[in-house]
């Protein structure tokens, strides 16, 4: 709650994602994985609600790089991974980086990007950079997953000042241009507020 008050735009949630949303966010990782170990990038892990879902889906040869902008959350997550038994089996396969996920660098192409950065709260240029970074680390193949709260953007847009409406429309257009024909989504009512996990397949032809 304190991080929400102090960093409203970048935190973008009053409470962590539910385990149901975390499960929906990790569906491609469970069901559409290529053979062998995979590389996963998590953008905006916060206090680790989705990270827990990722870790449940990880296998022994997988690697996870988490990029978190807020140093307090990054420290919290580092401690959590070091001490919580839920991470015991995968602790050595996870790295937490403090910094902007737009500048994410890893040493080989990722297969999955799982993004909880609150795209709907950000200026258009920041959204463009996050989506671009996702495409860059995937290097022409894989899945980019993000979530968005349902109903809220429409309600917010209906009551917002015109400059804010323009920002919201610009963000919606960027997300819509990013999605491809084979994008699919999963509605999760058991989350506060209800949300949709959106799974975008990335292919070399789009880059
Ligand atoms: C909506 S919270 C999600 C936290 C957690 N993944 C969950 O689902 O409960 C968004 C998180 O994204 C982080 N964030 C915002 N902008 C970011 C950026 N550019 N790079 C990395 N993390 C960012 C925030 O600090 C916050 O931890």
Explain what this protein looks like in three dimensions.
- The termini are far apart.
- Helix 6 links the parallel strand 2 (about 65-70) and strand 3.
- The mean pLDDT is about 95.
- Helix content is about 40%, strand content about 20%.
- A seven-stranded mixed sheet has the order 3-2-1-4-5-7-6, with helices on both faces.
- The radius of gyration is 16 Å and the shape is globular.
- By secondary structure, it is α/β, with parallel strands linked by helices.
Brief account:
With 207 residues, the chain is of the alpha/beta class. The chain is 40% helix and 21% strand.
- Spatial strand arrangement across the major sheet: 3-2-1-4-5-7-6
Helix content: 40-55%
Order of helices and strands: HHHHEHEHEEHEHHEE
Unreliable parts: none
Rg of Cα set: 16 Å
User: What CATH first level would be assigned?
Assistant: Alpha Beta
Secondary structure elements and pairings:
Layout: H1 2-6, H2 8-11, H3 19-25, H4 27-31, E1 39-43, H5 49-57, E2 63-68, H6 71-83, E3 94-98, E4 112-115, H7 124-138, E5 141-149, H8 152-159, H9 162-178, E6 184-188, E7 195-203
Helix pairs in contact: 3-5, 7-9
The structure holds S-adenosylmethionine.
Question: Could you name the key traits of this structure?
Answer:
207 residues; alpha/beta; binds S-adenosylmethionine; Rossmann fold; 40% helix; single chain; seven-stranded mixed β-sheet
């Amino acid at each position: 709650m304190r991080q929400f008050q102090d960093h409203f735009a970048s935190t973008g949630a009053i409470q962590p994602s539910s385990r149901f949303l975390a499960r929906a966010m990790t569906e491609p990782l469970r069901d559409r994985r290529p053979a062998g170990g995979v590389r996963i990038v998590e953008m905006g892990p916060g206090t680790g609600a989705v990270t827990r879902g990722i870790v449940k889906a990880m296998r022994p040869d997988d690697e996870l790089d988490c990029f978190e902008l807020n140093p307090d959350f990054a420290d919290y997550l580092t401690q959590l991974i070091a001490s919580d038994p839920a991470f015991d089996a995968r602790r050595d396969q996870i790295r937490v980086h403090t910094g902007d996920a737009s500048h994410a660098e890893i040493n080989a192409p990722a297969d999955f990007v799982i993004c909880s950065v609150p795209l709907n709260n950000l200026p258009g240029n920041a959204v463009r950079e996050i989506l671009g970074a996702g495409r860059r680390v995937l290097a022409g193949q894989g899945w980019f997953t993000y979530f968005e709260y349902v109903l809220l953007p429409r309600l917010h847009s209906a009551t917002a000042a015109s400059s804010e409406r323009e920002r919201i429309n610009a963000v919606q257009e960027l997300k819509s241009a990013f999605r491809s024909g084979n994008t699919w989504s999963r509605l999760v009512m058991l989350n506060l507020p209800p949300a949709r996990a959106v799974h975008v397949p990335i292919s070399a032809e789009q880059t």
